[in-house]
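Entry for the shared binder. Reason: the reviewer on the internal report wants the predicted structure included alongside the sequence.
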Amino acid sequence: MEPIAVLFAKQSAQGISSQAHQFPNLYQLASQTTGDFMKLRSSPPSPFGRKVKIAAKILGLYDQITVENSDTKDPDDSLRQQNPLGKIPILILDNGEAIYDSRVIIDYLDEIAEKSVIPACGAARRQAQTLHSLADGIMDASILIVYESRLRPENERSQDWVDYQTEKVDRAMIWLEDNCPSMENGINIGHIALACALGYRDLRFSSHWRDSHPKLASWLDEFEAKIPAFEQTKLNPDAS
């Protein structure tokens, strides 16, 4: 796929410059970045980074992105200048602008792509974004559980805190088991986020959730069969 700025340039050369007046915001965006030099700061285990990668692949933009690994624990990593919060993922545009977090990045990619993973309006958009939020919540809680054991000294760890986060995940997984989202109308950002959340559970908590959530496990298998990018972005637990 040609970068959007190139497409606009071709249209202008053909005397169709009215596009710039009809869509001024998009034209301004296209003139600022061709997308050829976007850089994604992330880490292979990050489910939020994986969400961006899968969305970029579906949108046909991944070949315009260079992925650069980051270490959020390293005080000298430049990501702390790119995002004052020191969090990933971050997308660096070719004009040097840094955008974050994953939701903002995907919204931007969806805006410049010819395809879309975010429904335009109405119930479809609300449902996709609500599922997106639920899946992000599973990821957030799961990461906090991992951090509690990996980053906090053993004598400072709180089982109450771990239980609190675990209960969030359990409630969400039970609800999703009873309300598996349909993919018959195509894949949207809610599906992508849910697949990444479940993939992170596989990565960090083995696959025990599958036994107690068979419908959800079948859903993930179906998603993986539909979306090659899921397998392409999978991280071996031994490498994490």
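Summary line for the report: The longest helix spans residues 122-150.
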